């Protein structure tokens, strides 16, 4: 049985599937689930041209993500916490898993293939490779 699970959510469509996968796990009665989201640091964001619409403000995005995580949190039967952090996604997910001494990390995969995967990188692959605990990667349908 699992006592502590870190669930990494990125706000994409795969997040719903990650939460569904969590429902299929056998958790101990005292289990703790940590729902986390990692905001990219400004250095890791792509520079956008001035003549194109800019993404929503970081403040709006923060509150939107926090509200979404709270909705997921309300559906959980286990004790849970929210972690909203800024940094490199893979590094922060691994750091949080180490802090909470989790038994499992549940993370979604965007299903990138070929050059896109090489250029954009794969957070889930890096987490699988570097985490000190087991990792469940939920793939898109």
Write the layout of secondary structure elements.
Elements: E1 2-8, H1 14-23, E2 27-39, H2 58-75, E3 79-86, H3 89-100, E4 104-108, H4 114-120, H5 123-130, E5 134-138
Parallel strand pairs: 1-2, 1-4, 2-3, 4-5
Helix pairs in contact: 3-5
Compact description:
With 141 residues, this protein is α/β, with parallel strands linked by helices. It contains 5 helices and 5 strands. Helix 1 links the parallel strand 1 (2-8) and strand 2.
Structural commentary:
- Helices cover 39% and strands 27% of the residues.
- It has helices at 14-23, 58-75, 89-100, 114-120, 123-130; strands spanning 2-8, 27-39, 79-86, 104-108, 134-138.
- The chain has a five-stranded parallel β-sheet with strand order 3-2-1-4-5, with helices on both faces.
- Strand 2, helix 2 (58-75) and strand 3 (79-86) form a beta-alpha-beta unit.
- Helix 3 (89-100) packs parallel to helix 5 (123-130).
- The longest helix is centred in the middle third of the chain and has 18 residues, at 58-75.
- Residues 48-54 and 116-120 have low confidence and may be disordered.
